[in-house]
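Record type: monomer structure entry
Structure origin: computed from sequence
Chain ID: A
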Amino acid sequence: MKNILTCLFCSVVLLFSCKDDNQQRIAENKKEAAKKEIIFSDIEKSWVFYDTPINETTEETVKTWNELRLFLAELSKKPKKTIGAFQQKSKAISKAAMNLNNNIPLKFDKPQIKSRIAVVITKVRMMDLFIHLDRIPSEKVILLIGEINRELATLQREMDKTVEKSKIPTEEGEADLKRMLDSTRAIPTTNVITIE
């Protein structure tokens, strides 16, 4: 008799505890959904990229540099509806940013431009990383969107500077002087050891 009462008591306790867990789980799911909705709305509001060229140099370059044109086109398309759409768009932007290192026009194949491209790629990949986390830090994603815009403007200004510098005529003999200063063209000196 005692065994039956003990089993009955345990089953009643188990039943009520399961019911409480289920209600608690439903409440937690509602809280989590509300958090995700807030994160989605914050990211959606701030998802604005500078996808149009800011100067004539960039406008001309976009016509010939296909990778830059595709990158700016990816930035111009804003995802809608879900955080998953933003994650997919972030992945596409990251892929397009990685391609910026390919086929750089000869006049822009300089360390200054390459370093600016590297910074843009780094910022885009960081945004992609943060937006794919389970708990998305929306503040960091929003901050990175602003930094990406700033770095894009810096890249475009550097491209403009490069074009302006190339328009400056070289003086007579300047090319020869540059060749003479080039250490890779110097005749290597060999140390001859003489034994006396």
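Annotation 1: The CA atoms of residues 127 and 143 lie 9 Å apart.
Annotation 2: The mean pLDDT is 78.
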